[in-house]
Amino acid sequence: MYSEEDIRRLAWQSRRGMLELDVLLGPFVNEAFRDLAIEDQDRFVKLLDSEDQDLFMWFMQRSVPEDPDLQRIVELILARVQPA
Question: Which family, according to UniProt (predicted)?
């Protein structure tokens, strides 16, 4: 389980300096992270270790992560911002 201090640290790590990433990752960690299953929370933490260029390509749907864990969390984040 992640503490509030951990979540604040993740929110800081979510600030990437690329607007397209910041508008996805920041709100996700602040508004949705607490409600995720622990496995998905762990996936989000793993996602933050990825390079910005990879994140950009995945979130712009120009490529998909090879790692199924990363693919799942990318899909969760995109599903949150895309209309049904």
Answer: Belongs to the SdhE FAD assembly factor family.
Domain total in the chain? 1
Chain centroid to CA 64: 14
Locate tokens 């996936």: which residue?
A: 43
pTM: 0.94
Domain membership of residue 11 as a residue range: 4-81
Length of the chain as a residue count? 84
DSSP 66: S
Q: Are 44 and 36 in contact (CB under 8 A)?
A: yes
CA dihedral (41, 69, 26, 76) in degrees, to 10, reads -90
pLDDT (tens, 9 = 90+) of the chain, 84 residues, equals: 999 999 999 999 999 999 999 999 999 999 999 999 999 999 999 999 999 999 999 999 999 999 999 999 999 999 998 876
